Amino acid sequence: MAAAAAAGSSPGSRPGDSPEGPEGEAPERRRKAHGMLKLYYGLSEGEAAGRPAGPDPLDPTDLNGAHFDPEVYLDKLRRECPLAQLMDSETDMVRRIRALDATYTIRKMKNDFRKMEDEMDRLATNMAVITDFSARISATLQDRHERITKLAGVHALLRKLQFLFELPSRLTKCVELGAYGQAVRYQGRAQAVLQQYQHLPSFRAIQDDCQVITARLAQQLRQRFREGGSGAPEQAECVELLLALGEPAEELCEEFLAHARGRLEEELRSLEAELGPSPPAPDVLEFTDHGGSGFVGGLCQVAAAYQELFAAQGPAGAERLAAFARELGSRYFALVERRLAQEQGGGDNSLLVRALDRFHRRLRAPGALLAAAGLAEAATEIVERVARERLGHHLQGLRAAFLGCLTDVRQALAAPRVAGKEGPGLAELLANVASSILSHIKASLAAVHLFTAKEVSFSNKPYFRGEFCSQGVREGLIVGFIRSMCQTAQSFCDSPGEKGGATPPALLLLLSRLCLDYETATISYILTLTDEQFLVQDQFPVTPVSTLCAEARETARRLLTHYVKVQGLVISQMLRKSVETRDWLSTLEPRNVRAVMKRVVEDTTAIDVQVGLLYEEGVRKAQSSDSSKRTFSVYSSSRQQGRYAPSYTPSAPMDTNLLSNIQKLFSERIDVFSPVEFNKVSVLTGIIKISLKTLLECVRLRTFGRFGLQQVQVDCHFLQLYLWRFVADEELVHLLLDEVVASAALRCPDPVPMEPSVVEVICERG
Amino acid sequence: MEDDAPVIYGLEFQIHIIDFDDENNIINKNVLLHQAGEIWHISASPADRGVLATCYNRTSDSKVLTCAAVWRMPKELESGSHESPDDSSSTAQTLELLCHLDNTAHSNMACVVWEPMGDGKKIISLADNHILLWDLQESSSQAVLASSASLGGKGQLKFTSGRWSPHHNCTQVATANDTTLRGWDTRTMSQIYCIENAHGQLVRDLDFNPNKQYYLASCGDDCKVKFWDTRNVTEPVKTLEEHSHWVWNVRYNHSHDQLVLTGSSDSRVILSNMVSISSEPFGHLVDDDDISDQEDHRSEEKSKEPLQDNVIATYEEHEDSVYAVDWSSADPWLFASLSYDGRLVINRVPRALKYHILL
């Protein structure tokens, strides 16, 4: 039809358009096309157009006629038409034939359909017949069919019965073969039926048999379960089967856990064996790895299997598991702690921290499974405890290092001196001690810093973020160490120092300087370092730097004061012996300064050098130039004589006292053991004060002959010559030496002083 | 002697008896000549107020020897209420020698101590390394050496000081030599205890707590005052470090033993309140016959904390070393101190403290 339309007319022109359409162009063709459509729709052209005088239908040359004879038509064409027309007619013919082809196909199809309809109708009829027949056959077969169905049912029943009857033997076979799963499935299938029909004796018998076998099966399963050679998955399977056999779940729980306990205890035993007393125990990392994979892994498996198997047990079951985990966990922790305790001695934290990290990390899994057991918390607690212990250990280490430094210093001080190498040792020793302690502190800080490293699993616990940093590291370790350092240093002032020689004075001096350095710089440096490394961010109060500095300063002051006392005592003892052991009444006229005085000056000079190594010079009062000589000459001639001259006459003893009292009114009271400042002059002043005061008191306890007095005069002049340069205020030396000579004069029944010039000559000579 | 507090102190060849009239604040001085020599130690008999013992230096031909003797004051000075002449020194009287403690066998007498609370018949003297017990017979006119003991050991051991304990029926004496304290039983003259290195340096003086057995105070050149329980000789009960030079004297108050007086060559006298180790650590205990409302008051007080030990006062009147301090035997709130320059200072316990102790 499409082909016809394409061949016929333009798509826009419809049959109804023709009256208005252009008439003259090709009316013939148009008519033909219409004609063909009409032909197609079964209308004769003549009828449709209603036109009279159509060609004769019997014309053999009429192409559209029923009696068309191609031969005649061709002959007629050949005869009648010239070549051009012939050609036209051929073209026209070809075109027409083409159009005709389509028209013809359509018409043929229409015919075919019509035929098919007929055949379908016939089929329907046939089918109806067949249905009818079939229904009839069905009806005939109905009865038989029912019987067959019944038979099939009986067959199935029989098979079931057969299964039941065979069940005992099957079960036995299964049990023998070890196909426990199969057996349990059989049992499960038969159970209900047997239960239902147990009133029938035969079923009863089967049931009894089955029960016996099942019992045996259960027995075997339990046996297998108990033997436990197989791993946890098989165990779990056994439990599953036993549960399916209707064994009491609670008992199974117990048994399951008991069994698991056996295995875990074995793990624990092997861990304990690793702990053993023998030294080649594996390192702590290995140990925690073993523990982690062996025990903790096992515990995880058990917990998972338990929760899977006994989920139906509800909270009671979970509680049982938690108790189980708690108990074993605590034993595991005990072992771990024992192992960790062995690590306490070690200096290396990195291994320990890694081990703790593993330990902690590992326990987080069962922690999730067994939140009730609180294993993760307990693990965290252990880690915290270990961290605390490590802090304590480091504090001990620092203390020990400090004591070690002190021992080194003592040894260095006690070592026999090589000539000429005496001097510079002290400053070097101080530097060594300071740097050694500082490096120890830094090492300890670095070591404990590992606990707070980001990658460590427990470093984000609140303890490690807060308390560990502030209370543990800053307060406990650093402040604690500085305090203990001060205490250790102070302890040198207290106990054995009384007897003098126990602590070398140089050590006191060195410690004093060390503490002073700490006060000025080191403490704030160390604390800043600590605060930077451990971002202290909690609310705990911390010791302020100033407090610590004050403590250090106080320690330094006490040490230096003690140093002054000790050195003063050494010189005092010399002076005292020299006064006490001499017979001053029968002594000869002085020719020399006594050796002990020279010794005193030598020792004082040595102390001056020693203190000068560590302490700054300090401030003196302004002095007159060449004060030693002039002052003494004044002292020995005018002032001194003026003071004790009247006492020659025993009649006026009160005058002396009056004079000396008046003089004292104008001089400041000398505080013998006065506080020492941190400089050399102050230290030396203190020592000299103590020494001269001792000399004074000792002189007052003796009785002097004339020459005894003169010897004291000489000695004092000598001291005056050499000691003034060491003290802050030389007037002090004058005063004390004045006192000594005046006291000696008072203690002399025959006080005739030596000529000052002679005194000077003797002193200059010796 | 009720109101007056005679104080005796020695100065070259003289003994001054000072009467202090507490009510009128008047001081009277009587001078007794001590012609035997320079006095180094003096102690009065507990039984006879007119009798005293001295240790004195006798200088003879470039030799100094310390002797000891017992003396009697002139009768009229004993009374204490005697009106002294205007110029005491011009009418100096002489002591009557009762007896010498014969020291020919032994050398220098460091000190003489009377038996406390005795009948004034027993006296102990310390001579170098000997401890000598004397019996005074025939009204003290004769001293018989009853027994003696001596320190053995290396070096020149010398007793520096000694005290007779008022406890244990007066059978114990404590002595100091160098840094060591020793206790002696006077019946057997044997050593009962020994505190080695009681002080870092020389022990200058010691005193027994009059109210508390076994308690003993000592002082020395290490500037410390230490309190001992003689049953534990390893360490002191308490240590004071208030002085800045040698401590020459330590004295318990005779009645209120928490009051301890110390004198030092730093020219200071320090009065300390050692309540915690006194016989009344919780304050004055009430007698049974006190009335009930007072009892209530007391119980309140007793519930308080034990009082703190502290320094009550530091007396700085002296310009030179203080060599002697002592409490008045008549008035427990009065004490005197004597320094090198001859200054005698009499002080009272602060009133506030007195009332605190009494009430």
TrEMBL record, chain A:
Report the residue ranges that make up the Exocyst complex component EXOC2/Sec5 N-terminal domain in this protein.
99-271
Q: Which GO terms describe its cellular component?
A: cytosol; EARP complex; GARP complex; membrane; nucleolus
Q: Which superkingdom is the protein from? A: Eukaryota
The biased composition feature labelled Low complexity covers: 1-19
Pfam family, any one: Sec5
Alphabetical list of InterPro entries matching this protein: Cullin_repeat-like_dom_sf, DBL_dom_sf, EXOC2/Sec5_N_dom, Vps51
* Location(s), subcellular: Golgi apparatus, trans-Golgi network; Recycling endosome
Q: Which GO terms describe its biological process?
A: autophagy; brain morphogenesis; endocytic recycling; Golgi organization; Golgi vesicle transport; lysosomal transport; protein targeting; protein transport
Residue span of the signal peptide, if any? Answer: none
Q: Which UniProt keywords apply?
A: Coiled coil, Endosome, Golgi apparatus, Lipid transport, Protein transport, Transport
**The keyword Chloroplast is assigned to this record:** no
Q: Where is this region: Disordered?
A: 1-32
Q: Which family does it belong to?
A: Belongs to the VPS51 family.
Function according to Swiss-Prot or TrEMBL: Involved in retrograde transport from early and late endosomes to the late Golgi. The GARP complex is required for the maintenance of protein retrieval from endosomes to the TGN, acid hydrolase sorting, lysosome function, endosomal cholesterol traffic and autophagy. Acts as component of the EARP complex that is involved in endocytic recycling.
- Quaternary structure? Component of the Golgi-associated retrograde protein (GARP) complex. Component of the endosome-associated retrograde protein (EARP) complex.
- This chain belongs to the protein called Vacuolar protein sorting-associated protein 51 homolog
Look up and give the organism this protein is from.
Macaca nemestrina
From TrEMBL, chain B:
**Location within or outside the cell:** Golgi apparatus, trans-Golgi network
InterPro entries per the record?
Beta-prop_EIPR1-like (IPR059104), EIPR1 (IPR040323), WD40/YVTN_repeat-like_dom_sf (IPR015943), WD40_repeat_CS (IPR019775), WD40_rpt (IPR001680)
Ranges for domain EIPR1-like beta-propeller:
13-271
Q: Name one GO cellular component term.
A: Golgi apparatus
Q: Where are the WD repeats?
A: 196-232
Composition bias, kind Basic and acidic residues: at what positions? 294-306
Return one Gene Ontology term, BP aspect. Answer: protein ubiquitination
Which PROSITE patterns has this protein been placed in?
Answer: WD_REPEATS_1 (PS00678), WD_REPEATS_2 (PS50082), WD_REPEATS_REGION (PS50294)
Keywords (alphabetical) are: Repeat, WD repeat
State the residue spans of region: Disordered: 282-306
Q: Which domain of life is it from?
A: Eukaryota
Instruction: Please name the SUPFAM superfamilies in this protein's record.
Output: Putative isomerase YbhE
Indicate the family of this protein: Belongs to the WD repeat EIPR1 family.
Q: How does it assemble?
A: Interacts with two multisubunit tethering complexes: EARP composed of VPS50, VPS51, VPS52 and VPS53 subunits and GARP complex composed of VPS51, VPS52, VPS53 and VPS54 subunits. Interacts with SNAP29.
Q: What is this protein called?
A: EARP and GARP complex-interacting protein 1
